[in-house]
Amino acid sequence: MIDDSKPIFLQIAELIENDIISGVLAEEAQVPSTNEFAAFYRINPATAAKGINRLVEDGLLYKKRGIGMFVTKDAPRRLREQRRQKFQQQFITPLTAEATKLGIGLEELVTMIKTGSDS
After folding, report:
1. Residue 103 structural domain
2. How far apart are CA 72 and CA 60, in angstroms?
3. I want to staple 32 with a disulfide (CB 3.0 to 4.6 A). Which of 4, 36, 40, 83 is the partner?
4. CB 74 within 8 Å of CB 28
């Protein structure tokens, strides 16, 4: 699952984020430890810790001293909001701009999206 396309610590953070959004890691659930990530992905524990600490800094995880890291209560909602904004910027804005250039109206665009999802 780990590849060379981006830094490993970012991939670890994204794995945890995806698990939070999909419900694999619920609010208040304990996150695997840095050592567990390190052993499973055969990476340096410091690299795994960097990914986890990034999520702590973002307020998505918190530490219970002596126990481990846990998902914050509002993490799923916050992640969905962040991802929706990113989705809008990366996909919807360019899509609608291109549709406008091509003279594709809203109804036609919606039809294209609906028929495209049937494929």
Report:
1. 76-118
2. 5
3. 36
4. no
